[in-house]
Amino acid sequence: MGVKEIADRLRPNVESAGFQHSAKFDTGPDGVVVIDGNTISTEDAPTDCTISLSLADLEALIAGDLSPTMAFMTGKIKVEGDMSVAMALGQMVG
């Protein structure tokens, strides 16, 4: 699964979540998924929070096979910017 498929899978959750911030999942060379309010895209843009992780870890996170807390604590994901925005993403992923 690529970032476009991940964005398509997350779209219904993003559109209905009432998220008031912007966040980016940055998978490096595999691309980005940017959530800005109730929109989602794969076009890079500045955001309140950037979550860096591998594409495989993003897939596992979306599938519910990877705990966001455990991934952060073990260094599988790195968060830059507003940590409270990263925590608010929990309602949309997994």
What report would you give on this structure?
This protein has 94 residues and is an alpha+beta fold. The protein contains four helices and five strands; from the N terminus they run αββββααβα. The protein has a five-stranded mixed β-sheet. Strand 1 (22-26) and strand 2 form a beta hairpin. The longest helix is centred in the first third of the chain and has 15 residues, at 3-17. The mean pLDDT is 93. InterPro entries: SCP2_sterol-bd_dom (IPR003033), SCP2_sterol-bd_dom_sf (IPR036527).
Brief account:
This is SCP2 sterol-binding domain-containing protein. This protein is of the alpha+beta class. It is 38% helix and 22% strand.
Distance between the termini: 15 Å
Overall mean confidence score, pLDDT: 93
Rg for CA atoms:
12 Å
| Helical percentage | 25-40%
Order of helices and strands: HEEEEHHEH
Protein name: SCP2 sterol-binding domain-containing protein
Domain SCP2: 34-92
GO cellular component, one term: cytosol
Pfam families: SCP2
Comma- or semicolon-separated keywords:
94 residues, alpha+beta, 4 helices, 38% helix, 22% strand, globular
Set down the secondary structure blueprint.
Blueprint: H1 3-17, E1 22-26, E2 32-36, E3 39-41, E4 49-52, H2 55-63, H3 68-73, E5 78-81, H4 83-88
Parallel strand pairs: 1-4
Antiparallel strand pairs: 1-2, 2-3, 4-5
